[in-house]
Give the backbone structure.
Amino acid sequence: MKKILLIDLYPIAIRAYTKLKRTTGGFSTSDGKPTTMVYGFLSTLSKLLKMETFNNVIICSDTIFNFRKNFRPYYKASRGRSNRDSSEWLNLVNSIRGLGFPIVKCNGVEADDIVFSISRNPEYEFFIATNDKDLYQAVAENVSLILANKSKLTLVDKAMVCEEYGVESPSDVAKIKALMGDKSDEIPAIKKGVGLKTAQKLLYSKGIPPENVLQYKKSLGLTQLMFYSSVIPPNIEFNSQNVDGVESLLTSLEIKKLKAKNLCLNHIPT
């Protein structure tokens, strides 16, 4: 079974960027082009590519508008202004294209929705790189998650998800989160004080059908925020990679600590 790495771009890039800005103050080329985000992302990518022998890499990105704001205009409002219009972000996007990896977007949905939809294909083994535990609901027999938190990458499988959230299936993580709410996304709990233990009891212990338990939120449309939408991504075309081309890219970015061969699928050591 072929192995595909799916990358949730924005959280991975922002995590690496924020850490580098805090610890080093940031990087730039001799002519002033900012490269902190590019360097941080490429460093993470090189580590990801060493974890498995991947056949392909697909990078998923958000669009400015997503359907969840129709249900709740303040969705993710507390996260502040996006960096997607910055020169750092534009340099990152151009560099990823230079590597030969496709960046996939779908109008009206988030990168998470695209990752979830692509990973439903049973013909491949998927590894999802993110730092967002909302994607736990995507984990399945053929889908693992690589959690990028702090300074390490942790491989998370189906059994680990079920143990952490006390659920029978990773797909139930969305139901648990719908009951608990998510402060970081401006989504309230179904009732004040509902935490993980209470949510588990509502789903399993009391014998209440999940459809009834979630009826309060369905009336407001809020469950739409916690469950990923099934979308049909556009046709994905994989560009061929060339070590010399990647080497030229790193040279133009004045990045000397990374090796081109560690960013190319065909040259990653097994």
About this structure: The longest helix spans residues 9-24.
